Each structure stands twice: as C-alpha cells, then as structure tokens.
Amino acid sequence: MRSIATVLCLSLLMLAVSCRNEPHPASQLKRRTVTLPNGQKITAEVNVLPIDLARGMMFRDSLPPDQGMLFIHDSPGTYTYWMYQVRIPLDIIWMDSNRTVVEVAANVPPCKTKASECPHYGGTRTAQYVLELAAGMAEKYGVRIGQSIVF
Q1: pLDDT recorded at residue 29
Q2: Average pLDDT value for the chain
Q3: How far apart, in Å, do the first and last CA atoms of the chain sit?
Q4: From CA 58, how far away is CA 54, in angstroms rounded?
Q5: Partners of 32 in the β-ladder
Q6: Is the dihedral of CA 93, 94, 95, 97 positive or negative?
Q7: Which of 28, 54, 107, 127 is deepest in the core (most CB within 10 A)?
Q8: Considering the entire predicted model, what is its pTM?
Q9: With 60 as the cut, is the pLDDT of residue 107 above it?
Q10: Which architecture does CATH list for 27-140?
Q11: What is the mean pLDDT of residues 19-48?
C-alpha cells in the first residue's frame, strides 16, 4: 500500500510541476554548448535515449546555424544515419570516444522516398558521438577529420 501512495504522490508532484508557466528546469538538461574546432559555439539538443536517437531531426522544418543535435551512443561502434522523414539537408559529423572527428557527411539531402529506399550515411569508422548541423555549416565552421570538438 505504501508504494501506491508513493507513486500517487510523485505523480501529483510531477503534474504540479508541469503546470507551471515557465520551462521545466529538466528541459535544460537536454541542451549543451558545443565548441567547434574554430572556436564557434553552438547549442546542441542532446539525444541519449534510444527513442530520441531514432527520431533525431525527423519532422523538423529548420535548424538555425548556431544550433545542432548531438547524439550520444552508449558505446563506440559503427553507426549509420539516414534521412527518412527529415525535411532539411544536414551535415553529419561522427566523433570517436575522444571527441575527435572521424567522419563527415556534408550536405546530406532529405529522403523523400519510402523508408526502404533511403540511403544510409557514415558508419565507416568507429564513433560514439554524432553531431548534426544545418547543411553547409561543417564547411563554414571548418570542421575536418582529425579535429576535436568540445562538449
């Protein structure tokens, strides 16, 4: 009976917090400042959970030049990405566990066909982190293989 009361209490607390007019402080945990090799700072939305890693930039209509999306995988591996249901072209940057750039796919176009026909990108080098930027930003900010990204 005590566990039911605890769950009910926590549920009510979460409901009360979510009804506030200001953003919930936990929403800030999903953002991180990323410093590119040339010193340019961007704000990246961080994805760690499997559902967020899978959804990524799907269904979004824009990505400002000073923002990005950072994917953090549990362990190093070869991770391919695709553009199914992504509406804008992107630059995709893979980094190893030391946050060194190991692969870059520039100006990757959205996939407007069936999911089974969408090409996959990257995954040719071992990586643990992936950063997506608006198309053209990797070149604009001078991101190259062998450079380090700080976050």
Answers
A1: 59
A2: 85
A3: 45
A4: 9
A5: 44
A6: positive
A7: 127
A8: 0.79
A9: yes
A10: Sandwich (2.60)
A11: 76
